[in-house]
Write a structure and sequence with these properties.
Elements lengths: L3 E2 H12 L2 E4 L8 E2 L4 E2 L2 H4 L11 E4 L1 H9 L2 H12 L5 E4 L17 E4 L4 H15 L3 E5 L1 E5 L2 E7 L5 H10 L3 E4 L2 E6 L5 E4 L10 E4 L3 E4 H5 L7 E12 L14 E5 L2 E10 L5 H16 L4 H13 L1
Parallel strand pairs: 4-5, 5-6, 6-7, 10-16, 16-18
Antiparallel strand pairs: 1-3, 2-7, 8-12, 9-10, 9-11, 12-13, 13-16, 14-15, 17-18
Helix pairs in contact: 6-8
């Protein structure tokens, strides 16, 4: 099961979400986030505790806060104590509302946080981040680039020219996502995204070019030459062939590959001496965009040839 710490959440997203830690700084690294689901514990605070999921971060919005203020202080503290005893990861008070002082000494494994953000906006941003962080993931061997705003994963056997082809594309102004080992996640649900290695990975933004060595794409080509994530649209498999092997000239048959049960279009591209692979990949990207809008040049030619035989 995927998880990460509350400390990571605050380090990566705390400033953007304007989260302030009122209590629990000393044990933030011990609090694990294991679900993207969030709760607004209005029912729990009113006494209904069935089906309560203690794994969820609890959002105390304006409605819950006003309800708590309507209770006598003793009862208010008792209700919050019941919530904290569940050892939920965190209570987040939105709209700048201040946590009652009585809960500070109760929370031994629960962080008490606040934000001035409007509750629905804050909840949506936090949920999206949690979905991204906890998305199912896998690694594949290949190189991923952004070409004409399409995420393209270049695969193939070692020595087929994946990195060299990607380097040629980068030198023409396109962007690298990851080289050699590409991390894929299912995000959003039903879609596949390629992301850079984790921030602590020493290999981020690096490429290995045979005969040259390891290069730093960010340092050589600038900030525009790298991206940290991109939706995967197309897989191009480089396939080394030995002339005079026969190659199909064109075909309407579609090929796919699957990640997390999601089908992604795939093209097998023969590699032979003299082929300008980066130019072909750029053309494939543009052709793919045309097909999205319903235009297929191969289909047009085959329909013409069929009409000549009829």
């Amino acid at each position: 099961m995927s998880s990460f710490t509350l400390y990571e959440l605050l380090s990566e997203k705390g400033e953007e979400l304007k989260i302030f830690v009122h209590h629990g700084k000393e044990f933030l690294k011990d609090i694990l986030i294991t679900t993207e689901r969030l709760s607004r514990p209005g029912l729990f605070l009113s006494g209904y505790e069935e089906h309560f999921d203690k794994r969820r971060i609890q959002i105390i919005g304006n409605t819950e806060y006003r309800y708590l203020l309507s209770l006598p202080e003793e009862k208010r503290c008792e209700r919050l104590k019941r919530l904290i005893e569940k050892e939920v990861p965190a209570l987040i008070f939105t709209r700048g509302n201040k946590p009652p002082q009585c809960i500070m000494n109760m929370a031994k494994k629960t962080a008490i946080l606040t934000t001035p953000e409007y509750t629905p906006v804050f909840q949506r941003k936090l949920y999206d981040y949690l979905c991204f962080k906890l998305a199912p993931s896998m690694t594949v061997h290949g190189t991923m680039v952004d070409v004409y705003d399409l995420g393209i994963l270049i695969t193939g056997k070692s020595g087929s020219g994946k990195s060299e082809c990607a380097l040629d594309l980068i030198s023409q102004g396109f962007s690298l996502i990851a080289d050699d080992v590409v991390r894929l996640i299912e995000y959003p649900k039903g879609s596949v995204m390629g992301v850079v290695p984790r921030k602590e990975d020493v290999f981020q933004n690096l490429m290995e070019i045979r005969g040259v060595g390891i290069i730093d794409v960010f340092s050589l080509f600038g900030v525009g030459a790298v991206k940290d994530r991109k939706k995967l649209d197309l897989v191009i498999e480089l396939f080394i062939v030995e002339p005079p092997a026969s190659m199909a000239r064109f075909s309407l048959k579609k090929d796919y590959t699957e990640y997390f049960g999601v089908k992604v279009d795939k093209v097998v591209l023969p590699v032979v001496p003299g082929r300008h692979l980066s130019a072909i990949i750029k053309t494939l990207a543009l052709d793919y965009r045309l097909k999205i809008y319903g235009y297929n040049a191969t289909k047009r030619v085959e329909e013409y040839l069929k009409s000549q035989h009829d």
